Here is the input.
Amino acid sequence: MRRQRTLYILLLCISSLAGCSEGEEAMPAGRDAPYDLALPAQFSSPPLPDGNPMTMAGVELGRRLFYDPILSADSSLSCSSCHFPERAFTDGRPVAIGINTSTGRRNAQSLANAAYQYKGLFWDGRAPTLEEQALVPVEDPKELGHDWSAVERSLRRHPSYPELFEEAFGIADTAQITRQLAARALAQFERTLISANSRYDRVMRGEAKFTALEERGKHIFFDTSEKLPEGECGHCHTPPLFTDQTYMNNGLDEAPELSDFQDKGRGEKTGEYYDNGRFRVPSLRNVALTAPYMHDGRFATLDEVIDHYNRGGHPSENVDPKIRKLHLSDTDRLALKAFLKTLTDSSFVNNPEFRNPF
Ligand code: HEC
Ligand code: HEC
Here is the structure.
């Protein structure tokens, strides 16, 4: 932390060109300090946008906003109503339930390692950045059902938010509290949600060993044993994030015409016929905690997911060729499930810094 701050002062001095005189308050007071994103060795640095540097105060403000029902029309819901930390920031429901118990159409996504999603957020990738994504739920009539002008007014006259925005963004008066700043703070908090300390990671670091069953599952997942069936999973669910962030059709539904998909997924965003029925490959980190599964939450358990892949999925023009009958035995299926369970990161879900601050 100290080294980071020294570096920051130095940068300030260089950028001001005025040099650093003793009397001047060049160093930001404690909470304006840059946030030190402690990255695990196997993870590269996530893409960080210009214009929204992470600070201690920005992250803390984002955490408050994330858990604060001030963002919903009737003060009943917050982001955390659909993204619970103990479920790796999913909600345990097939599809989300928003304001006035309105039912959405898609399954709430995990926010673990959201900082790394650089090919678009949401199942169809329609939001390019976390900053832009964060603006969406507030005005979605099936999520928080509010309007940003009203949220801005409540934040401006709130007893503590004006000071928090001032610390995070150095604004001079409350009129400068905007939805864009709120979204930036939310994005800063979300970028801290890094999950890289599962049993799988500990085995990779040489600190633990897989059981024989987990080892077998790993071979099936990554197609690395000639004696076992190839599961093909690792081609799309690629480590270290366990997603290659592509948009794929994994054969959930039969579709004689690609326009037949009820939810067109990626095609809805791109308008391309060939993208209909494709969804962003989800990360499998913490997958044992994020049931039910798929964009519409159709599978309640990992066994159902594995059975789906084992059967080879349903035909359509753009289903990926790696989706095919796998011929897994009962033991193979158990092994695959055991391997998936090694991706649970309890230090992530129990991290007090990610929890409700209220
Ligand atoms: C009513 C439930 C609900 C609420 C409230 C909600 N979300 Fe979500 N969230 C979802 C669903 C459902 C999706 C997937 C939607 C889609 O793909 O169309 C999602 C997706 C996301 C994603 C994309 C993740 C990825 O990997 O692409 C982010 C980030 C996110 N939400 C953050 C937030 C933030 C920040 C808030 C509060 C401002 C919030 N959510 C409020 C249900 C909710
Ligand atoms: C061709 C790429 C591809 C292959 C191969 C593949 N998947 Fe997937 N997987 C996807 C896509 C795309 C989704 C999301 C589909 C949707 O919801 O429409 C998905 C979803 C999942 C989910 C649900 C995750 C969630 O959060 O809802 C699990 C679990 C999963 N896959 C496990 C596996 C396993 C195990 C294998 C190997 C047997 C495998 N996948 C092979 C592309 C692939």
The CA atoms of residues 69 and 78 lie 4 Å apart. Residues 1-28 have pLDDT under 50 and may be disordered. The radius of gyration is 22 Å. Residues 71, 77, 79, 81-83, 96, 98, 104, 106, 108-109, 111, 114, 117, 121-123, 130, 133-134, 137-138, 143-144, 186, 190 surround heme C (ligand 1) (CB under 6 Å).
